[in-house]
Amino acid sequence: MKSRQLLAVMILSLAACSTKSSSTAVDREQSATTFAPTEFSGERAFEHVRRLVELGPRPVGSEAHARMRAYLLAELKGYGLSVRTEEFQAQTPLGEKTMVNIIAER
User: Fold this and answer.
1) CA distance 10 to 13
2) What is 10-56 written as a DSSP string?
3) Structure pTM?
């Protein structure tokens, strides 16, 4: 009798684990497709890199850095994302600088 109860508990435990993991896999798959604006394109990624490299060095506080930030904000907004920035102060080898996080959300 005890072995039957143990077997029943083991089967129920395995069934519960099995259901949970498949649900998680489906959730991950759905969220990946929900938040991807388009498929990845190596050509498009290279074009972004090319445009940023054209700006030259982009140290914090420079005109090139401001142009890079404007480019990134425009591109993210172009994908239909809600974009916001958060400024903060950070110590650098050149002293304290104002940094900006760019946060994009669907």
Assistant:
1) 5
2) HHHHHHHHHHHHHHHHHHHHHHHHHH-SS---HHHHHHHHHHHHHT-
3) 0.61
